[in-house]
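the five lines:
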Amino acid sequence: MIAAKVIDKIWATRKADSLIGLKFMLVEVIGGIDAGRLMIAADSIGAGMGERVLVCTGSSARKMLDRNDAPIDAIIIGIIDEDCTF
Amino acid sequence: MIAAKVIDKIWATRKADSLIGLKFMLVEVIGGIDAGRLMIAADSIGAGMGERVLVCTGSSARKMLDRNDAPIDAIIIGIIDEDCTF
Amino acid sequence: MIAAKVIDKIWATRKADSLIGLKFMLVEVIGGIDAGRLMIAADSIGAGMGERVLVCTGSSARKMLDRNDAPIDAIIIGIIDEDCTF
Amino acid sequence: MIAAKVIDKIWATRKADSLIGLKFMLVEVIGGIDAGRLMIAADSIGAGMGERVLVCTGSSARKMLDRNDAPIDAIIIGIIDEDCTF
Amino acid sequence: MIAAKVIDKIWATRKADSLIGLKFMLVEVIGGIDAGRLMIAADSIGAGMGERVLVCTGSSARKMLDRNDAPIDAIIIGIIDEDCTF
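prediction for all of em together
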Protein backbone atom coordinates (compact mmCIF):
# COMPACT_ATOMS: atom_id res chain seq x y z
CA MET A 1 0.00 0.00 0.00
CA ILE A 2 1.06 3.60 -0.22
CA ALA A 3 0.44 6.59 2.01
CA ALA A 4 -1.17 9.47 0.18
CA LYS A 5 -3.02 12.71 0.78
CA VAL A 6 -6.46 13.40 -0.68
CA ILE A 7 -6.14 16.59 -2.71
CA ASP A 8 -9.22 16.72 -4.95
CA LYS A 9 -12.34 15.00 -6.22
CA ILE A 10 -12.59 13.71 -9.76
CA TRP A 11 -15.87 13.99 -11.63
CA ALA A 12 -16.57 11.79 -14.62
CA THR A 13 -20.15 11.83 -15.85
CA ARG A 14 -19.40 9.51 -18.76
CA LYS A 15 -17.97 6.33 -17.34
CA ALA A 16 -18.30 2.57 -17.23
CA ASP A 17 -21.70 1.50 -15.89
CA SER A 18 -20.08 -0.60 -13.16
CA LEU A 19 -18.51 2.56 -11.72
CA ILE A 20 -21.77 4.42 -11.12
CA GLY A 21 -22.08 5.41 -7.48
CA LEU A 22 -18.36 5.20 -6.76
CA LYS A 23 -16.48 8.31 -5.63
CA PHE A 24 -13.09 9.05 -7.16
CA MET A 25 -10.44 11.03 -5.32
CA LEU A 26 -7.18 12.49 -6.59
CA VAL A 27 -4.47 11.52 -4.14
CA GLU A 28 -0.81 12.48 -3.94
CA VAL A 29 1.80 10.07 -2.67
CA ILE A 30 3.49 11.19 0.57
CA GLY A 31 7.15 10.65 1.39
CA GLY A 32 10.03 8.79 -0.17
CA ILE A 33 11.17 8.93 -3.77
CA ASP A 34 7.60 8.63 -5.07
CA ALA A 35 6.40 11.78 -3.28
CA GLY A 36 4.37 13.88 -5.68
CA ARG A 37 3.02 10.97 -7.71
CA LEU A 38 -0.68 11.46 -8.47
CA MET A 39 -3.18 8.64 -8.51
CA ILE A 40 -6.93 8.42 -8.72
CA ALA A 41 -8.43 6.08 -6.16
CA ALA A 42 -11.98 4.95 -5.56
CA ASP A 43 -13.23 5.73 -2.09
CA SER A 44 -15.75 3.65 -0.17
CA ILE A 45 -14.64 4.72 3.30
CA GLY A 46 -15.55 8.40 3.23
CA ALA A 47 -12.13 10.04 3.13
CA GLY A 48 -12.14 13.83 3.36
CA MET A 49 -10.11 16.43 1.56
CA GLY A 50 -6.63 16.77 3.04
CA GLU A 51 -6.75 13.51 4.96
CA ARG A 52 -3.87 11.08 4.80
CA VAL A 53 -5.02 7.71 3.52
CA LEU A 54 -3.87 4.18 2.84
CA VAL A 55 -4.28 3.30 -0.82
CA CYS A 56 -4.27 -0.28 -2.08
CA THR A 57 -3.44 -0.81 -5.75
CA GLY A 58 -3.72 -3.55 -8.31
CA SER A 59 -6.22 -6.38 -8.42
CA SER A 60 -6.46 -6.34 -4.63
CA ALA A 61 -8.19 -2.97 -4.91
CA ARG A 62 -11.35 -4.68 -6.12
CA LYS A 63 -11.57 -6.82 -2.99
CA MET A 64 -13.16 -4.03 -0.98
CA LEU A 65 -16.06 -3.46 -3.35
CA ASP A 66 -19.29 -5.45 -3.43
CA ARG A 67 -18.94 -5.56 -7.18
CA ASN A 68 -15.76 -7.49 -7.89
CA ASP A 69 -16.09 -6.83 -11.61
CA ALA A 70 -15.54 -3.06 -11.48
CA PRO A 71 -12.52 -1.80 -13.46
CA ILE A 72 -10.76 -0.39 -10.41
CA ASP A 73 -7.01 -0.54 -9.73
CA ALA A 74 -6.70 1.70 -6.66
CA ILE A 75 -8.89 2.23 -3.61
CA ILE A 76 -8.70 4.03 -0.32
CA ILE A 77 -8.73 1.32 2.36
CA GLY A 78 -8.10 3.37 5.50
CA ILE A 79 -7.57 6.79 7.04
CA ILE A 80 -4.20 7.22 8.73
CA ASP A 81 -4.68 8.43 12.32
CA GLU A 82 -3.97 12.13 12.74
CA ASP A 83 -1.61 11.50 15.65
CA CYS A 84 0.37 8.91 13.67
CA THR A 85 3.65 10.78 13.19
CA PHE A 86 5.51 8.85 10.55
CA MET B 1 -6.28 4.81 -11.89
CA ILE B 2 -4.40 7.59 -13.59
CA ALA B 3 -5.54 10.77 -15.26
CA ALA B 4 -4.33 11.04 -18.84
CA LYS B 5 -4.95 12.94 -22.03
CA VAL B 6 -5.77 11.20 -25.31
CA ILE B 7 -3.15 12.30 -27.82
CA ASP B 8 -3.35 9.84 -30.72
CA LYS B 9 -4.83 6.68 -32.13
CA ILE B 10 -2.77 3.54 -32.57
CA TRP B 11 -3.34 1.33 -35.58
CA ALA B 12 -2.22 -2.28 -35.57
CA THR B 13 -3.49 -4.39 -38.44
CA ARG B 14 -1.59 -7.47 -37.31
CA LYS B 15 -2.70 -8.26 -33.79
CA ALA B 16 -4.09 -10.94 -31.52
CA ASP B 17 -7.48 -12.19 -32.74
CA SER B 18 -9.09 -11.37 -29.42
CA LEU B 19 -8.25 -7.70 -29.96
CA ILE B 20 -10.14 -7.32 -33.23
CA GLY B 21 -12.70 -4.55 -32.94
CA LEU B 22 -11.03 -2.80 -30.04
CA LYS B 23 -9.77 0.77 -30.42
CA PHE B 24 -6.37 1.67 -29.05
CA MET B 25 -5.50 5.18 -27.95
CA LEU B 26 -2.15 6.71 -27.05
CA VAL B 27 -2.58 8.57 -23.78
CA GLU B 28 -0.20 10.78 -21.83
CA VAL B 29 -0.25 10.90 -18.06
CA ILE B 30 -1.26 14.29 -16.62
CA GLY B 31 0.22 15.83 -13.49
CA GLY B 32 2.59 14.73 -10.76
CA ILE B 33 5.96 13.07 -11.21
CA ASP B 34 4.65 10.68 -13.87
CA ALA B 35 3.53 13.49 -16.20
CA GLY B 36 4.67 12.70 -19.71
CA ARG B 37 4.46 8.93 -19.38
CA LEU B 38 2.90 7.38 -22.48
CA MET B 39 0.57 4.43 -22.37
CA ILE B 40 -1.64 2.69 -24.87
CA ALA B 41 -5.13 2.03 -23.59
CA ALA B 42 -8.07 0.22 -25.09
CA ASP B 43 -11.17 2.38 -25.40
CA SER B 44 -14.72 1.12 -25.17
CA ILE B 45 -16.27 4.39 -24.03
CA GLY B 46 -15.69 6.57 -27.09
CA ALA B 47 -13.02 8.96 -25.85
CA GLY B 48 -12.08 11.73 -28.25
CA MET B 49 -8.75 13.24 -29.12
CA GLY B 50 -7.62 15.74 -26.49
CA GLU B 51 -10.06 14.58 -23.82
CA ARG B 52 -8.89 13.91 -20.29
CA VAL B 53 -9.67 10.34 -19.29
CA LEU B 54 -9.49 7.92 -16.40
CA VAL B 55 -7.33 4.93 -17.24
CA CYS B 56 -7.46 1.69 -15.28
CA THR B 57 -4.42 -0.57 -15.50
CA GLY B 58 -3.52 -4.14 -14.68
CA SER B 59 -5.80 -7.15 -14.59
CA SER B 60 -8.73 -4.92 -13.61
CA ALA B 61 -8.58 -3.41 -17.09
CA ARG B 62 -10.13 -6.56 -18.52
CA LYS B 63 -13.21 -6.24 -16.30
CA MET B 64 -14.81 -3.71 -18.61
CA LEU B 65 -14.67 -5.87 -21.72
CA ASP B 66 -17.18 -8.52 -22.64
CA ARG B 67 -14.26 -10.75 -23.50
CA ASN B 68 -12.36 -11.29 -20.28
CA ASP B 69 -9.65 -13.22 -22.09
CA ALA B 70 -8.29 -10.30 -24.14
CA PRO B 71 -4.61 -9.46 -23.51
CA ILE B 72 -5.36 -5.95 -22.26
CA ASP B 73 -3.60 -4.19 -19.37
CA ALA B 74 -5.00 -0.65 -19.67
CA ILE B 75 -8.42 0.70 -20.58
CA ILE B 76 -10.20 4.03 -20.60
CA ILE B 77 -12.97 3.76 -18.01
CA GLY B 78 -14.29 7.32 -17.95
CA ILE B 79 -14.07 10.84 -19.34
CA ILE B 80 -13.12 13.48 -16.79
CA ASP B 81 -15.69 16.30 -16.80
CA GLU B 82 -14.46 19.40 -18.60
CA ASP B 83 -15.30 21.65 -15.66
CA CYS B 84 -13.43 19.43 -13.23
CA THR B 85 -10.50 21.68 -12.36
CA PHE B 86 -7.99 19.48 -10.64
CA MET C 1 10.17 -9.26 -3.82
CA ILE C 2 12.05 -6.30 -2.48
CA ALA C 3 14.37 -5.87 0.47
CA ALA C 4 13.25 -3.14 2.82
CA LYS C 5 13.79 -1.83 6.33
CA VAL C 6 10.96 -1.41 8.82
CA ILE C 7 10.99 2.22 9.89
CA ASP C 8 7.60 2.88 11.52
CA LYS C 9 4.15 1.59 12.37
CA ILE C 10 1.05 2.94 10.68
CA TRP C 11 -2.14 3.39 12.65
CA ALA C 12 -5.48 3.62 10.91
CA THR C 13 -8.51 3.38 13.18
CA ARG C 14 -10.95 3.91 10.32
CA LYS C 15 -10.32 1.18 7.79
CA ALA C 16 -11.91 -1.60 5.79
CA ASP C 17 -13.48 -4.24 8.04
CA SER C 18 -11.44 -6.99 6.45
CA LEU C 19 -8.26 -5.28 7.66
CA ILE C 20 -9.11 -5.34 11.35
CA GLY C 21 -6.42 -7.13 13.31
CA LEU C 22 -3.72 -6.65 10.69
CA LYS C 23 -0.57 -4.68 11.53
CA PHE C 24 0.73 -2.16 9.02
CA MET C 25 4.39 -1.19 8.85
CA LEU C 26 6.08 1.61 6.96
CA VAL C 27 9.06 0.13 5.14
CA GLU C 28 11.80 1.77 3.10
CA VAL C 29 13.35 0.02 0.12
CA ILE C 30 17.05 -0.82 0.57
CA GLY C 31 19.63 -0.65 -2.18
CA GLY C 32 19.60 -0.07 -5.91
CA ILE C 33 17.88 2.74 -7.77
CA ASP C 34 14.67 2.31 -5.74
CA ALA C 35 16.39 2.98 -2.41
CA GLY C 36 14.31 5.41 -0.39
CA ARG C 37 10.97 4.31 -1.78
CA LEU C 38 8.37 4.06 0.98
CA MET C 39 5.72 1.37 1.10
CA ILE C 40 3.18 0.25 3.65
CA ALA C 41 3.12 -3.50 4.14
CA ALA C 42 0.91 -5.72 6.22
CA ASP C 43 2.84 -7.83 8.70
CA SER C 44 1.81 -11.26 9.86
CA ILE C 45 5.29 -12.47 10.79
CA GLY C 46 6.12 -10.13 13.67
CA ALA C 47 8.78 -7.92 12.12
CA GLY C 48 10.42 -5.46 14.49
CA MET C 49 11.43 -1.85 14.02
CA GLY C 50 14.71 -1.56 12.14
CA GLU C 51 14.69 -5.13 10.84
CA ARG C 52 15.39 -5.85 7.20
CA VAL C 53 12.51 -7.69 5.63
CA LEU C 54 11.37 -9.36 2.43
CA VAL C 55 8.25 -7.70 1.06
CA CYS C 56 6.00 -9.36 -1.51
CA THR C 57 3.79 -7.07 -3.57
CA GLY C 58 0.77 -7.39 -5.82
CA SER C 59 -1.93 -10.02 -5.74
CA SER C 60 0.55 -12.55 -4.35
CA ALA C 61 0.60 -10.54 -1.15
CA ARG C 62 -2.82 -11.88 -0.24
CA LYS C 63 -1.63 -15.48 -0.39
CA MET C 64 -0.13 -15.32 3.08
CA LEU C 65 -3.32 -14.24 4.81
CA ASP C 66 -6.11 -16.52 5.95
CA ARG C 67 -8.53 -14.04 4.47
CA ASN C 68 -7.80 -13.96 0.77
CA ASP C 69 -10.33 -11.17 0.24
CA ALA C 70 -8.45 -8.46 2.16
CA PRO C 71 -7.48 -5.40 0.08
CA ILE C 72 -3.76 -5.91 0.60
CA ASP C 73 -1.05 -5.34 -2.03
CA ALA C 74 2.13 -5.70 0.05
CA ILE C 75 3.09 -7.98 2.92
CA ILE C 76 6.17 -8.83 4.89
CA ILE C 77 6.96 -12.47 4.10
CA GLY C 78 10.30 -12.92 5.85
CA ILE C 79 13.01 -11.39 8.02
CA ILE C 80 16.40 -11.21 6.34
CA ASP C 81 19.04 -12.86 8.54
CA GLU C 82 21.21 -10.35 10.39
CA ASP C 83 24.41 -12.00 9.18
CA CYS C 84 23.27 -11.92 5.55
CA THR C 85 25.65 -9.33 4.13
CA PHE C 86 24.24 -8.39 0.78
CA MET D 1 0.01 -1.47 -23.07
CA ILE D 2 3.23 0.14 -24.10
CA ALA D 3 4.70 0.90 -27.48
CA ALA D 4 8.15 -0.59 -27.95
CA LYS D 5 10.68 -1.45 -30.61
CA VAL D 6 12.05 -4.97 -31.04
CA ILE D 7 15.82 -4.69 -30.73
CA ASP D 8 17.10 -8.24 -30.17
CA LYS D 9 16.29 -11.88 -29.56
CA ILE D 10 16.94 -13.52 -26.23
CA TRP D 11 18.14 -17.10 -26.09
CA ALA D 12 17.74 -19.17 -22.96
CA THR D 13 18.43 -22.86 -23.35
CA ARG D 14 17.86 -23.60 -19.67
CA LYS D 15 14.36 -22.43 -18.82
CA ALA D 16 11.05 -23.46 -17.30
CA ASP D 17 9.51 -26.39 -19.20
CA SER D 18 6.32 -24.43 -19.84
CA LEU D 19 8.32 -21.88 -21.82
CA ILE D 20 9.69 -24.32 -24.40
CA GLY D 21 8.73 -23.23 -27.89
CA LEU D 22 8.15 -19.60 -26.97
CA LYS D 23 10.26 -16.86 -28.56
CA PHE D 24 11.60 -14.08 -26.38
CA MET D 25 12.37 -10.63 -27.74
CA LEU D 26 14.22 -7.74 -26.16
CA VAL D 27 12.10 -4.63 -26.65
CA GLU D 28 12.80 -0.99 -25.85
CA VAL D 29 10.04 1.37 -24.78
CA ILE D 30 9.37 4.20 -27.27
CA GLY D 31 8.44 7.73 -26.28
CA GLY D 32 7.56 9.52 -23.08
CA ILE D 33 9.45 9.43 -19.81
CA ASP D 34 9.89 5.64 -19.97
CA ALA D 35 11.75 5.76 -23.30
CA GLY D 36 14.79 3.52 -23.10
CA ARG D 37 13.31 1.03 -20.68
CA LEU D 38 14.16 -2.54 -21.69
CA MET D 39 11.76 -5.42 -21.33
CA ILE D 40 11.73 -9.01 -22.50
CA ALA D 41 8.46 -10.03 -24.07
CA ALA D 42 7.23 -13.36 -25.37
CA ASP D 43 6.20 -13.24 -29.02
CA SER D 44 3.49 -15.36 -30.56
CA ILE D 45 2.68 -12.99 -33.42
CA GLY D 46 5.92 -13.10 -35.40
CA ALA D 47 7.35 -9.65 -34.75
CA GLY D 48 10.50 -8.81 -36.65
CA MET D 49 13.64 -7.01 -35.61
CA GLY D 50 13.13 -3.24 -35.64
CA GLU D 51 9.35 -3.39 -35.75
CA ARG D 52 7.26 -1.25 -33.41
CA VAL D 53 5.01 -3.42 -31.29
CA LEU D 54 2.27 -3.30 -28.71
CA VAL D 55 3.32 -5.05 -25.51
CA CYS D 56 0.84 -6.16 -22.87
CA THR D 57 2.21 -6.69 -19.36
CA GLY D 58 1.10 -8.34 -16.15
CA SER D 59 -1.26 -11.25 -15.72
CA SER D 60 -3.12 -10.24 -18.89
CA ALA D 61 -0.01 -11.25 -20.85
CA ARG D 62 -0.86 -14.90 -20.33
CA LYS D 63 -4.26 -14.52 -21.96
CA MET D 64 -2.81 -14.78 -25.43
CA LEU D 65 -1.09 -18.11 -24.89
CA ASP D 66 -2.76 -21.50 -25.15
CA ARG D 67 -0.98 -22.43 -21.95
CA ASN D 68 -2.36 -20.10 -19.29
CA ASP D 69 0.07 -21.49 -16.73
CA ALA D 70 3.27 -20.19 -18.33
CA PRO D 71 5.31 -17.79 -16.15
CA ILE D 72 4.98 -14.89 -18.58
CA ASP D 73 4.45 -11.24 -17.64
CA ALA D 74 4.88 -9.50 -21.01
CA ILE D 75 3.85 -10.42 -24.53
CA ILE D 76 3.77 -8.82 -27.94
CA ILE D 77 0.09 -8.52 -28.87
CA GLY D 78 0.29 -6.51 -32.10
CA ILE D 79 2.50 -4.84 -34.68
CA ILE D 80 1.98 -1.08 -34.96
CA ASP D 81 1.25 -0.12 -38.58
CA GLU D 82 4.25 1.43 -40.33
CA ASP D 83 2.22 4.43 -41.48
CA CYS D 84 0.94 5.10 -37.96
CA THR D 85 2.76 8.33 -37.16
CA PHE D 86 2.39 8.81 -33.46
CA MET E 1 10.17 -10.17 -18.07
CA ILE E 2 13.39 -8.43 -17.24
CA ALA E 3 17.00 -9.38 -17.77
CA ALA E 4 19.00 -9.36 -14.56
CA LYS E 5 22.25 -10.59 -13.08
CA VAL E 6 22.38 -12.76 -9.97
CA ILE E 7 24.56 -10.94 -7.45
CA ASP E 8 23.87 -12.56 -4.08
CA LYS E 9 21.83 -15.02 -2.07
CA ILE E 10 19.30 -13.89 0.50
CA TRP E 11 18.88 -15.84 3.72
CA ALA E 12 15.73 -15.53 5.77
CA THR E 13 15.34 -18.07 8.54
CA ARG E 14 12.08 -16.55 9.77
CA LYS E 15 9.66 -16.60 6.87
CA ALA E 16 6.23 -17.68 5.73
CA ASP E 17 5.81 -21.47 5.99
CA SER E 18 4.88 -21.73 2.33
CA LEU E 19 8.33 -20.39 1.41
CA ILE E 20 10.33 -23.10 3.15
CA GLY E 21 12.62 -24.83 0.68
CA LEU E 22 12.67 -21.98 -1.81
CA LYS E 23 15.94 -20.23 -2.66
CA PHE E 24 15.98 -16.45 -2.86
CA MET E 25 18.48 -14.59 -5.01
CA LEU E 26 19.30 -10.90 -5.14
CA VAL E 27 19.29 -9.85 -8.79
CA GLU E 28 20.20 -6.57 -10.44
CA VAL E 29 18.44 -5.35 -13.55
CA ILE E 30 20.68 -5.15 -16.64
CA GLY E 31 20.44 -2.45 -19.29
CA GLY E 32 18.08 0.39 -20.06
CA ILE E 33 16.82 3.04 -17.69
CA ASP E 34 16.09 0.48 -14.96
CA ALA E 35 19.69 -0.74 -14.77
CA GLY E 36 20.76 -1.00 -11.15
CA ARG E 37 17.32 -1.84 -9.81
CA LEU E 38 17.54 -4.59 -7.20
CA MET E 39 14.94 -7.32 -6.85
CA ILE E 40 14.72 -10.52 -4.87
CA ALA E 41 13.56 -13.46 -6.95
CA ALA E 42 12.78 -17.03 -6.03
CA ASP E 43 14.85 -19.55 -7.96
CA SER E 44 13.69 -23.00 -8.91
CA ILE E 45 15.98 -23.40 -11.90
CA GLY E 46 19.40 -23.43 -10.22
CA ALA E 47 20.81 -20.08 -11.30
CA GLY E 48 24.40 -19.45 -10.27
CA MET E 49 26.09 -16.34 -8.97
CA GLY E 50 26.92 -13.93 -11.78
CA GLU E 51 24.63 -15.56 -14.33
CA ARG E 52 22.28 -13.46 -16.43
CA VAL E 53 18.71 -14.58 -15.91
CA LEU E 54 15.16 -13.97 -17.07
CA VAL E 55 12.95 -12.85 -14.21
CA CYS E 56 9.16 -12.99 -14.36
CA THR E 57 7.27 -10.71 -11.98
CA GLY E 58 3.75 -10.33 -10.66
CA SER E 59 1.12 -13.02 -10.25
CA SER E 60 2.62 -14.95 -13.17
CA ALA E 61 5.65 -15.64 -10.99
CA ARG E 62 3.66 -18.19 -9.01
CA LYS E 63 2.88 -20.23 -12.12
CA MET E 64 6.26 -21.96 -12.04
CA LEU E 65 5.92 -23.27 -8.51
CA ASP E 66 4.09 -26.44 -7.50
CA ARG E 67 2.56 -24.46 -4.68
CA ASN E 68 0.46 -21.76 -6.28
CA ASP E 69 -0.35 -20.24 -2.92
CA ALA E 70 3.18 -19.05 -2.07
CA PRO E 71 3.52 -15.27 -1.58
CA ILE E 72 5.97 -14.86 -4.46
CA ASP E 73 6.04 -11.94 -6.92
CA ALA E 74 9.28 -12.62 -8.81
CA ILE E 75 10.96 -15.80 -10.01
CA ILE E 76 13.88 -16.76 -12.18
CA ILE E 77 12.40 -18.55 -15.19
CA GLY E 78 15.48 -19.04 -17.38
CA ILE E 79 19.22 -18.57 -17.77
CA ILE E 80 20.22 -16.33 -20.66
CA ASP E 81 22.70 -18.14 -22.93
CA GLU E 82 26.29 -16.95 -22.41
CA ASP E 83 26.78 -16.36 -26.13
CA CYS E 84 23.62 -14.26 -26.36
CA THR E 85 25.10 -10.82 -26.97
CA PHE E 86 22.29 -8.39 -26.39
